Every structure is written in C-alpha cells, then in structure tokens.
C-alpha cells in the first residue's frame, strides 16, 4: 500500500472554501492575501481544482439574489388610493381638465406601430424616444412643454428649464421634470415611471385631491387606478429595460411566459405558450426584439420543446 | 431539425479541440465542461468501487488527471475524455490493490458508459437554474442555510449577518464555508438535485 502523499479531498475542499469566504465574503482582502492564495493554488493542482469547484458553486448561488424581495421599498410608500368610481371615469375627468387648460395650443400626435421605434428632438434639444406600439401628443407652446402618453412606452431625456417645466401626462398621473432622464410606460390602466437620472415630481389625482412624490434615480413608480407604489430598483434592471433603444430585449431570470409577452410587444407574429410547465422555464439572454424566430430556436435547443410556426403565431408546447 | 447553423449562438471564443489552453481558459473550460459531469462521474465511481469512503478522493484524482491532460490538448469530446480517464484510473487502482473484487473486474470490462449522449447535463443546467439552486439551498443544514440566505439573497455583509444571527463573524464564516461545500456537493455530485424533472 502506498501512503497518500496528499491530504484528503475533504480537507482540501474545506481549505478552498475558507479561502473563498475570506476573499469574497469578507472585507479587507489585501494584496498579501491574494499572493498567499495564489501560492496555495499553485502548490498542487488539487488545490486549484477544489477552489474552482467551490467558487463555481458560490457563483451559482449568486443567482439567488434574484429572489431578493423588493423590500428596499422605502417608507415613503404612498397610501393606496381608493377606487371611488370606475377607473375610466377618473381618466376622462382629468383628461378633460388638462385638455381645457391646453386648448388653443397646437398639438401634434406621434404614433409608432408594433415593432416601431422613433426618436423626436424638440426645439430645446430635449429628446423623446418612442418604443413599439406607442401613441403620444406633444404640445410645445414655448411657455409650457406638455406630452400626453396615450399608450405604449417612451424614454425622455429632457433639457431642464425651470421657467418652462416639462410635463408628461398619462391618465390621472403627471410627471414633472426637474432636470432628468426617465422612462414612462402605459399599459391599459397601469402606468410605470422609472427615473434614471436627475429628479422629477410625480403627481396623481383622485377625488380626494393630489398625491405627490419626488423621484430620485432608481425610483420606479407603479400606479394603477387604485394603488401607487415606489420601488427602488437596481441600475442594471433599468439599463436592461432600456435595451429597446438598441433594438434589444434583455431577460434575467424571466419566465418563458414573460419573455414571450415581451417579444409580443414588438412583433405581429405572436409567441403563444401553450403549456403551463414550459411557461415557467427560466430564461436569460439578450436578443433582437424583432427576431422571435431566433428566440424560439434557442428555446428549442435548450429545453426540448416543440414549436409550431404559423404566419401569425408561433405555438410552443411540449 | 439540425442545429449546425447555430454555432454562433454562444458568443464565446472557443478554442478548437486539439489546441492547448492557457490557464484561465483551462479553468473556465473545467468549470463549464467538466463540473457538470460530476454527478455521472460520482455514480460511475460508486458503481465500480466498493469502498464509498474513497470515492471523493478518487474524484479529486480523476479531476487532476483531466485538468492536467487538457492543459496541453483540449479534448474533442469532454464526456468520453473524462470517463476514459476515470476508467483507466479505476483499472489502475484494481491492479494495485491486494484483492481484486470480482464484480469490479467484470464491471470494468463493461465500462463503456453512455460515452456520448450529447450535452444532457448542459441542458439540465440551462433549465431552471434559479430553481435548482434554490432547492439546493433548502437542503442545507439550518444555520448554514440561514447564513447563505442572508449573504446571497439579502446581500448582507458577514458583519451584518453576525449581528442578525447573534453569533461571531468567525462563526458566520464557518457557516458559509460549510454552506458552500454542501452546495457544491448538491449542485455537482448529486443526481437527484439536477435531474428530478425532465
């Protein structure tokens, strides 16, 4: 019998995990520490392999960050608004209100179709980018700059002018620019405003009057007719959401159902997920928004699912 | 339907099989191509070796041989490469040991493993990664699980975890060390964690 000339795999595995925890989970990792780790790794291939293995497991566990509850919701939660009437009625009332204050000023309408993407540059240099299937009206009287978002999504990069505030209206909600970049999406009765840079004021109105909040970078407001919340959102998430400006959709831990819904915003050929099991599959990736076929092809490759391609839809099943 | 036109889908620069690899390439290759085979490898070693207490060490020895051999030449089929090495390793062990267990000798001859089912493990990895990792987390011992949860899900520092759990920072480190080791075993070695639903 030969004596074992090296320590057991269990001991080495333990030592590797200790190094990893010291390096990645604690503060104060120094150059000296790194040098020591490097020499330990170089000592024996077993060390290197054990370290690679434990590091890979820890990296996979980083995915768990996706489960972090969005409880960084700050205490300045705006109390939920009560439905006092049919939501549509409120929209009409306030829509009419805003309309009369603006009457007499020329108004231009801009529309994109499914898959469309347009950039408008205003006289003051402010830019508005319209995403797919979007409709908005611009009133630029010089005294006041007002955009009404009727549906869809737009990204605003506004040149700030304290005297002539820039206002975005959507239903009974209003965003007033205080020098800023922000994204507004309106989907039926849900409005979502994400602030990327600068500051903006968000107002919403119901029968009880106006509710206000000041938005800072990373804030995302989600408003429906009955509720309103502000959630602090990681920068990466917002950058991903703006992928459409480059013609891309970005998925991180999306379900296949969510990914399909996102593609369907951009394409007339709709992806239909016909099976509840595959609807829950996990999707990560960066893809061209106008190319559902490539998306479907890679899904088939990874998940062994079936795709029936028809002119107007692609049906995914097991 | 063939997938031959889809090789560009993964944007990584792949070195052709047969070429030598630099150290970082080798490391990345090992993590990406070899570790996902671990569950099959462990099954293979366990099936063909009586003393299960030795299997973890054997795995390490096989890994070293794989790693060293791939340094000078990136293998074409990782799976057959790994299992050829494992097979030779076991044959060598059997030859060296005093007693040759009959079943082992017999099995060794029938060791053709399903050498080349293409990429089963990889598609398993791609599928539901978050859920796999989550169910692995749920199987950790309680205190470990708590520490790993606070670290990886809540994103707390070890100092904050120590306060939250009412223990010393050193104990937090120990829980994390144990937690990661269990996770590596569950994620890589155990078949049931990765292949439960197909």
What does this structure look like?
- With 318 residues, chain A is α+β, with helices and mostly antiparallel strands.
- Chain A has 3 domains: 9-66, no CATH class; 87-238, Sandwich (Jelly Rolls), CATH 2.60.120; 247-317, Phage tail protein beta-alpha-beta fold (3-Layer(bab) Sandwich), CATH 3.55.50.
- In chain A, 31% of the residues lie in helices and 36% in strands.
- Chain A has helices at 9-25, 31-43, 45-62, 87-102, 235-241, 256-266, 276-279, 292-303; strands at 108-111, 118-121, 127-130, 135-140, 145-157, 166-170, 173-187, 190-206, 209-215, 219-223, 228-232, 248-255, 270-273, 282-288, 306-309, 313-317.
- In chain A, α1 crosses α3 (45-62).
- The longest helix of chain A is centred in the N-terminal third of the chain and has 18 residues, at 45-62.
- Mean pLDDT of chain A is 80; it is low at 1-5 and 70-103.
- Chain B folds into 2 domains: 17-123, Rna Polymerase Sigma Factor, Chain: A (Orthogonal Bundle), CATH 1.10.1740; 127-194, Arc Repressor Mutant, subunit A, CATH 1.10.10.10.
- Helices cover 66% and strands 0% of the residues of chain B.
- With 198 residues, chain B is an all-alpha fold.
Question: What attributes does this structure have?
Answer:
heterodimer, A: about 325 residues, alpha+beta, Jelly Rolls, Phage tail protein beta-alpha-beta fold, 3 domains, 11-stranded mixed β-sheet, 3-stranded mixed β-sheet, 16 strands, about 30% helix, globular, disordered N terminus, B: about 200 residues, mainly alpha, Rna Polymerase Sigma Factor, Chain: A, Arc Repressor Mutant, subunit A, 2 domains, 11 helices, about 65% helix, disordered C terminus
How many angstroms separate the termini of chain A?
A: 54 Å
Write the CATH fold name of the largest domain in chain B.
Rna Polymerase Sigma Factor, Chain: A
Whole-number tally of structural domains of chain A = 3
Q: What's the assembly state of these chains?
A: heterodimer
Level of helix content of chain B? 55-70%
